[in-house]
Design goal:
Helices cover about 10% and strands about 35% of the residues. By secondary structure, it is mainly beta. It has 2 domains: about 15-135, Gp5 N-terminal domain (OB fold (Dihydrolipoamide Acetyltransferase, E2P), Beta Barrel); about 150-190. The longest helix has 16 residues, at about 15-30. This is Phage protein Gp138 N-terminal domain-containing protein.
């Protein structure tokens, strides 16, 4: 007996009930439910932490045309934070990220400053209730010396903070400061409490640089 092989066609093409239902469900999800898409910042207001966001995935028409999605205004931008502290990024037009829709209408919750509230409408999975998550998916690299460190840096690597299990290092251009249990070093030279100077003489003369 030969094994049964599912035909490589859309079930809706043969008019079966399962095929029609499958086609309808796919169409409903595609046209009515949002989830997450790559997106780009059009403009950003730092005071309100809201942005105009443009999704980067196009939509298609029944006649095969590709159409850009419209920009979505008043989108909150995600910030890492907690315990009275947060990390702020200087969001700029053109920045890449991810637009993520909430399951329900969250407008009243935002109006109440993050306190519990009822969904204001019956909206489900809509980008009207989305947040934007900035992402540096491209155009960056870290020094090989920092491969085991927590790194905060500018995209071009011109300014770097690198934290390891036993040190904190700050680098800007050719200048560096490194703090560890061995002391504080500037450009590899000890400038902490245990550093010494050469060419020391009594009187008004100036000592040598730290050693």
């Amino acid at each position: 007996m030969q094994p049964t092989v599912a035909p490589d066609i859309d079930g809706a093409d043969d008019g079966s009930l399962s095929g029609v239902l499958k086609s309808w469900i796919r169409s409903f999800i595609r046209e009515n439910l949002d989830d997450m898409l790559p997106a780009q910042v059009v403009s950003y207001d730092d005071a309100s932490n809201r942005a105009v966001i443009k999704p980067l995935i196009m939509v298609g028409t029944t006649d095969g045309q590709k159409i850009s999605r419209g920009s979505i205004p008043n989108i909150p931008v995600f910030r890492y934070g907690g315990g009275g502290f947060f990390i702020r990024f200087p969001i700029k037009p053109g920045d890449f990220g991810w637009l993520k829709a909430n399951d329900r209408d969250v407008s009243l919750m935002f109006q109440r400053g993050g306190r519990e509230d009822w969904p204001n409408t019956e909206r489900l999975h809509s980008f009207s209730d989305a947040m934007f998550f900035p992402d540096t998916i491209k155009d960056w690299a870290i020094s090989g010396a920092d491969s085991d460190a927590l790194v905060v840096q500018s995209m071009d690597g011109g300014a770097v903070v690198a934290i390891t299990a036993d040190s904190v290092e700050l680098r800007v251009g050719s200048q560096s400061l490194r703090l560890s249990s061995d002391g504080l070093q500037h450009n590899g030279v000890n400038i902490g409490a245990t550093h010494v100077h050469g060419n020391v003489e009594t009187g008004p003369n100036v000592s040598g640089v730290p050693q």
